[in-house]
Amino acid sequence: MNVNFCSVVRASSLKLLTVVAVLFIAGISSAQPDPAYNPKAGSEKQPAKPFRVLTSGKHITIQSKKDISKIVVWTGTGHRFVEENNVNSSSYSFNVTIPAKFFYIMVELKDGKRYTERIGVE
What we know:
Blueprint: H1 2-31, E1 51-56, E2 59-75, E3 80-84, E4 89-95, E5 102-109, E6 114-120
Antiparallel strand pairs: 1-2, 2-3, 2-4, 2-5, 5-6
């Protein structure tokens, strides 16, 4: 009878120890901060870009409040198809001549500030 009692106590102790270990690990893991959570992320606003990108089919116009000095446009695969170094105007227009749907535009203003934006065309 002593052998059966010891084996029952040992089995019960192992089950209890397993349950306690699982609960302890679950408690520790839920107490860790979420690295993706940033409470300040929603409160910080990006300053408005000083230009607008207007699209009409394959025709794209960039209008700015300040003079534009340089424009570079490239596809998602890195193919540059517009690179204008001396724009010296507050507006620039071009037609998309390649079969891509998404592009990246880099606009550099006269004051040296650069802005990039991803756009899509039909």
